[in-house]
UniProtKB/TrEMBL annotation:
Entry's Gene Ontology cellular component terms: plasma membrane
Highest taxon listed in the record's lineage: Bacteria
Protein name per the record: RND multidrug efflux transporter
Pfam family, any one: ACR_tran
TM segment ranges: 12-34, 331-350, 357-377, 383-404, 436-458, 464-486, 524-543, 843-862, 869-889, 895-914, 951-973, 979-1005
Signal peptide as annotated in the record: none
InterPro entries documented for this protein: AcrB_DN_DC_subdom, Acrflvin-R
Gene Ontology MF annotations: xenobiotic transmembrane transporter activity
Keywords attached to this entry: Membrane, Transmembrane, Transmembrane helix
Length: 1010
């Protein structure tokens, strides 16, 4: 095949040019994103139930929804949490579940339950969680001085949002911090009583004035008209003119008995930018959109907004495209430095300038054609797939070096130029194909990891497969064709030293100096190598383990739970005080205070919570700020719960889990309800483990409890419905009616005086059966008690929990079970600990499969069942090199260093395969003329010298190409640095094993006839 193609160089050249042209066209159409569009197998059901307690939300809303959802196909787990006025149900499915169908099914179940849910409950929201839900950028909308925020909310909702939604690639525009205008009606109670009227007379008058006839039409001669009531109100002035009639028949204008005006509805949450109240717009991209095209469009649109809406200032924050730019920059850096160092190494090892040029041309061609595979496989350009390309680049150079070196070797044997190209390729073709397959055998099984990790590895595995497959195509066809072109007309036969530089000749001498003593004492040398294998594996015990590498971030998130029953307005004032006092210590800040209005917000949301984001100029100032911030906050507000963390990027948001590391859950087997506060506090005093934190179901907050005196109500003829209606009017947000005009809804609400609870109960009355009015305080007793802040439940029903903070959580399971059994509680243990254990078991199984695949491929390549074991025994030595460098640099074993280890093993395997393949071929060649023992030793010696150059060059080009990452900064370099350490550490030891351990192990096996 190679001979046939090399005889048609024009056709081959045109084919490659056509492939490159198509690749350029394809690259322009490939979607660019931060992460692959992964369907996270979760659905969130959000409930907003104003003026409802956690117990009421759990019993009346969450419990029936949860029971209905239990029958959904593929459901793995269900968790619910009820708080004051809000509730959430999180459904987790088996990975691979069709989330489109699950989303439809969840909505259908909500619709079927609509009749059994409370009538005044807004429809629960059903949200799908997807990696595209992470906003690509946040646009801050800041009203200028004197501009009403409610007006800016209308501008943002009706104009800015719609204009941003029209941008190509935008999937959703979400808003937080909106304020709503309402019409408030404040009754004048003394005047009402003087006229023998009640608030109910006022309410009925407004409702009648806002009635609308639904679709009634009349005929008038030849015409048909729709009826409309002329009394329909549209403004406070219209309401003030409405007549109010008393029981005695007295009628007065509403302006006599109440004040009516526009007001801003008291919000449950706010957004702050710096120390100003503002709105924030989050922009979400479509799955197929290019992030690096979309973000500039958003910047351009906001520039136009500045001219069109001078009453508003704009700013940007949390631009996620920065991480993508860092990834692309890293790839460009790897290409640039990889090419430069490959050139340098080739110039040092080879005495000819044309060989580096050939490899320099093959690199961009291979990379370009790889994008055709991206297009065919439906892969987007993202951080994961780009890292796969970067990993494959090192191996791409290796294939080119090996093919060219073998062509040169053939020319030194006296073979003509054309035949050297043909035989040079054919001789290493099977070995290179095997080396690529073994690399994939180590890498591809990681795709079968369960969950999101496996889905991420899929993109990386496909990218590595693409570039390795293309690199073989280029190495087998394009490189020999270039070699023919560059060396055409030169001497057909070259001297065996002509292709070597003086530096390489010196290196070869040093190699022989160490090679001779190792083979002079083969048993001792082999014993040392075998002893190093277990030592290398045991070093892992000293390496720290974590999920993602630590990256230097210049931003941070502070979450404050004031742990007090404060309204959102007090939360805002406290947060503003903090931001104003610390204004000069950060470069940018924003805060989401109280309940967030985002449609896609999947958190729990609490009026008492504030989430602050800070951006700093330097990492040192960030650490000092966070330390001082915590200390000052604890001094001012000792009850506040403060959490500080690095601002999550897309990776963190994808992999982060709210699940505690080790959680103990219990439930009452008899009452099937939360254990009362007092009893639970007593039981926790003798809990077997002292180091624990309270779960959500045990956290408390003070609350006001109304106890109704049913006996007195019956005596005075007080209807429970009328009393409850009065309580809702006094303490809740009581909406009389809504004005609807052209899609705009303006609520008309009843406004009460802001007094203490006992004053309101004393100054307001309810009417009895005899028409007499009685103070509410006669029938309502007030108690102040500590109640649970949240009610938590899972598949098994209601539960309460604690999170253990012990170093050995599983050591306490038996004593905890005894504690629970003594109190008639059912107990269960859940948490990230068990997930990690499952992941470790999966990884162990996957690695065993990878080793088996590796063995099968090598056995087929060598036609031998024993020789593959030589290569498999080299792997622990390379892994030991990884552990050593990670320990020396203070790095950890994480996702990136694990990927680096896989890449390193792939390169190690390649070197060992080529070494053994060459030994086998030479041994067979010498066996006809020499004694078997002499033939074996000569094959080992000659193979060592033949393969010395490609082994050293492949290792050095890979190591030197990665070195710049160690000395560069930024989030991209921080992510890649553990990968680089793993590759360099493993290859340093791996190169030594390929040069000395492989021939030594081969010698022992061959001596035993294997």
């Amino acid at each position: 095949m190679v001979r046939f193609l090399l005889q048609r160089p024009v056709g081959v050249l045109m084919t490659f040019i056509a492939l490159m042209v198509f690749s350029v066209i394809v690259i322009r159409s490939l979607p660019v994103a931060l992460l692959p569009p992964i369907d996270v197998p979760q659905i969130l059901v959000k409930v907003q139930y104003p003026n409802a307690s956690p117990e009421a939300i759990e019993q009346n809303v969450l419990a029936p929804i949860r029971e209905s959802m239990l029958t959904m196909a593929g459901l793995e787990n269900i968790e619910s949490q009820a708080g004051s006025e809000t509730g959430t149900i999180r459904l987790t499915f088996d990975f691979g579940t069709k989330m489109e169908l699950a989303y439809i099914e969840a909505n259908e179940k909500i619709d079927r339950l609509s009749n059994s849910l409370p009538q005044d409950l807004p429809r629960p929201q059903v949200l799908r969680i997807n990696t595209n839900d992470i906003p690509v950028i946040r646009v801050q909308v800041i009203p200028k001085a004197g501009i009403d925020l409610a007006e800016i909310s209308l501008l943002t909702e009706n104009l800015l949002k719609k204009r941003l939604e029209q941008l190509e690639g935008v999937a959703l525009v979400d808003i937080n911090g909106k304020q709503e205008k309402i019409i408030s009606v404040a009754p004048d109670l003394p005047v009402l009583r003087a006229l023998n009227m009640t608030e109910e007379n006022l309410i009925q008058a407004i409702r009648f004035g806002n009635e609308e006839l639904p679709g009634i039409s009349v005929e008038d001669g030849q015409f048909r008209f729709y009826l409309r009531l002329a009394t329909r109100v549209s403004s406070p002035e219209d309401i003030l003119g409405l007549p109010v009639r008393s029981k005695d028949g007295v009628t007065v204008d509403l302006s006599r008995v109440a004040k009516v005006q526009y007001e801003t509805k008291e919000p449950l949450g706010f957004h702050l930018f710096g120390n100003q109240e503002a709105l924030v717009i989050t922009v979400h991209k479509q799955a197929t959109a290019k992030m690096n095209d979309l973000v500039p469009q958003v910047y351009a649109a906001v520039d136009r907004f500045r001219g069109d809406y001078p009453q508003v200032d704009f700013d940007f924050s949390q631009d996620q495209s920065i991480l993508l730019k860092a990834g692309i920059s890293n790839l460009q850096g790897s290409l640039l430095f990889g090419g430069i160092f490959a050139f340098a190494v080739l110039f040092l090892f080879m005495g000819d300038y044309r060989t580096p040029i050939i490899i320099g041309l093959s690199l961009p061609i291979s990379l370009l054609i790889s994008f055709l595979v991206f297009y065919a496989a439906g892969i987007s350009i993202n951080i994961i797939s780009l890292s796969g390309l970067a990993l494959g680049l090192g191996m791409l150079i290796d294939n080119a070096i090996i093919v060219l070196d073998n062509i040169v070797q053939k020319r030194t044997e006296g073979i003509s130029l054309f035949e050297a190209c043909v035989q040079g390729v054919n001789e290493v073709m099977s070995a290179l194909i095997s080396s690529v397959l073994t690399t994939l055998a180590v890498f591809v099984p990681l795709v079968f990891l369960s969950g999101i990790a496996g889905a991420l590895f899929l993109d990386q595995a496909l990218a590595v497969t693409a570039i390795l497959g293309v690199s073989l195509l280029v190495a087998f066809i394009f490189l020999p064709m270039l070699y023919l072109f560059f060396f055409k007309g030169k001497s057909q036969i070259i001297n065996h030293l002509e292709g070597d530089s003086k530096i390489f000749i010196w290196i070869k001498k040093q190699y022989k100096k160490l090679y001779s003593p190792i083979f002079s004492h083969p048993k001792l040398s082999m014993a040392v190598f075998l002893l190093l294998i277990p030592v290398s594996l045991l070093l892992v015990k000293f390496v720290n383990v974590e999920g993602m590498p630590k990256v230097e971030k210049l931003d941070a998130v502070v979450t404050i739970n004031w742990n007090e029953p404060i309204p959102a307005s007090v939360n805002k004032s406290r947060t503003l005080d903090l931001l104003q006092n610390l204004e000069k210590t950060y470069s940018k800040a924003e805060a989401d205070v109280g309940v967030r209005q985002f449609l896609l917000f999947d958190g729990e949301g609490s009026i008492q919570e504030s989430n602050l984001y800070f951006l700093f100029e330097e990492a040192t100032s960030k650490e000092a700020f966070l330390s001082a911030f915590r200390q000052n906050l604890q001094t001012q507000y000792p009850r506040a719960i403060v959490e500080t963390m690095d601002a999550p990027n897309a990776f963190d948001q994808l992999f982060a889990s709210d699940m505690p590391y080790f959680e103990v859950r219990w439930r009452d087997l008899v009452g099937k309800k939360p254990i009362p506060v007092g009893q639970m506090e007593t039981w926790l005093k003798d809990f077997p483990v002292k180091d624990y934190s309270l779960g959500l179901g045990l956290q408390q907050e003070p609350s006001v409890v109304f106890e109704l005196d049913a006996a007195k109500m019956a005596l005075y003829g007080i209807a429970p419905e009328s009393l409850m209606q009065k309580v809702r009017q006094l303490f809740g947000t009581y909406t009389i009616t809504d004005i609807r005009q052209f899609g705009e809804i303006t609520p008309i609400t009843l406004r009460q005086d802001q007094k203490q609870v006992d004053e309101l109960l004393t100054s307001n009355a309810v009417e009895g059966k005899d028409g007499q009015s009685y103070p509410l305080s006669q029938f309502i007793r007030i108690n102040y008690q500590n109640h649970y802040k949240y009610v938590t439940a899972d598949k098994g029903g209601l539960y309460q929990s604690v999170a253990l903070e012990s170093d050995n959580p599983t050591g306490h399971t038996n004593t905890i079970r005894e504690w629970a059994l003594d109190k008639n509680l059912g107990v269960a243990f859940v948490g990230q600990f068990f997930k990690d254990q499952e992941t470790i078991r999966e990884l162990t199984g996957i690695l065993l499969v990878a080793v088996l695949l590796l063995y099968f491929i090598l056995a087929a390549q060598f036609e031998n069942f024993v020789q593959p074991m030589i290569i498999i025994f080299t792997l622990p030595l390379g892994i030991g090199g990884v552990w050593i460098l990670l320990l020396l640099t203070g790095s950890s074993l994480n996702i990136m260093s694990a990927i680096g280890m896989v890449v390193m093993l792939g390169i190690m395997v390649n070197d060992a395969i080529l070494k053994i393949d060459t030994i086998n071929r030479l041994r067979q060649q010498y066996a006809a003329d020499l004694d078997p023992t002499i033939a074996l030793r000569k094959a080992l010696d000659v193979a060592g010298e033949i393969r010395l150059k490609p082994i050293l060059m492949t290792s050095l080009t890979t190591i030197l190409a990665l070195l710049p990452v160690i000395f560069s900064g930024g989030i991209g370099a921080d992510l890649q640095r553990p990968l680089v350490y793993a590759v360099i550490g493993g290859l340093t030891i791996g190169t030594f094993t390929a040069l000395y351990f492989v021939p030594l192990a081969y010698w022992f096996l061959a001596k035993r006839g294997r």
